[in-house]
Specification:
Radius of gyration: 18 Å
Structural class: alpha/beta
Largest sheet: 6 strands, parallel
Distance between the termini: 28 Å
CATH topology of the largest domain: Rossmann fold
Number of domains: 2
Shape: elongated
Number of helices: 11
Strand content: 5-15%
Order of helices and strands: EHEHEHEHEHEHHHHHH
């Protein structure tokens, strides 16, 4: 499908575009400027726009795109849900909301489902709704960070140094993750996270460390 990528971090936009192109998608626009996305959306004719625009109000960008003659679907790939996101989701202005902590295959699946006409939320709890994967959605942003570091094989001290917190705080986060995933022991976190779609199998096959 034809995709436009707009993330205010240019490096992330570029890497994501490359990854999606490698999966056979046609990336017709890659930018870190929401204004460029809005001005070029008509000529580039994307089927789906994948955006994360925090400084420029994401809902406003989605509303602008929805007003085009041939509007693309909007998928918000973000670790921060601004005010109004869920209202826009219910209205169909935003068709997908994916937490950046989710694994790449989760995004791929979301794009396919959105292209098929679904509304999709992954890695977020929709206010007022109960979801089958609510245990995973209950993880906080910081817990998701710790989860991914655990899966990549970082020690408690390494995680504490990376996050700028104490070892005790890291242990507390790990205990919360274990409780919410319903597993016992760090060794089981990786498989539970993979089953929940939060990490790639490739990370696990590489021994936990990123390849």
């Amino acid at each position: 499908m034809r995709l436009a990528i707009c993330d205010e971090q240019w490096l992330f936009s570029s890497v994501l575009s490359t990854a999606l192109a490698q999966q056979g998608h046609e990336v017709v626009l890659t930018t870190d400027e929401p204004a460029v996305l809005m001005s070029r959306a008509t000529e580039s004719r994307p089927d789906i726009c994948v955006i994360d625009v925090v400084e420029t109000y994401a809902v406003a960008v989605a509303g602008f795109l929805a007003g085009l003659d041939d509007p693309p679907a909007v998928v918000l790939l973000t670790d921060v849900c601004q005010d109004g996101v869920w209202e826009a989701y219910e209205q169909g202005l935003i068709r997908g909301v994916v937490n950046k902590a989710c694994a790449f295959p989760v995004l791929m699946n979301t794009l396919d489902r959105v292209a098929g006409g679904e509304r999709v939320s992954e890695g977020w709890q929709i206010p007022g709704q109960r979801q089958d994967h609510g245990v995973v959605d209950a993880l906080t942003g910081r817990e998701l960070e710790v989860l991914r570091l655990v899966v990549r094989g970082h020690s408690t001290q390494e995680m504490a140094d990376r996050l700028g917190v104490s070892r005790h705080t890291v242990r507390t986060h790990v205990q919360q993750i274990l409780r919410k995933l319903g597993v016992h022991g760090r060794g089981k976190i990786a498989r539970a996270a993979e089953a929940a779609g939060l990490v790639d199998a490739a990370v696990l096959s590489s021994g936990g460390r990123p390849v």
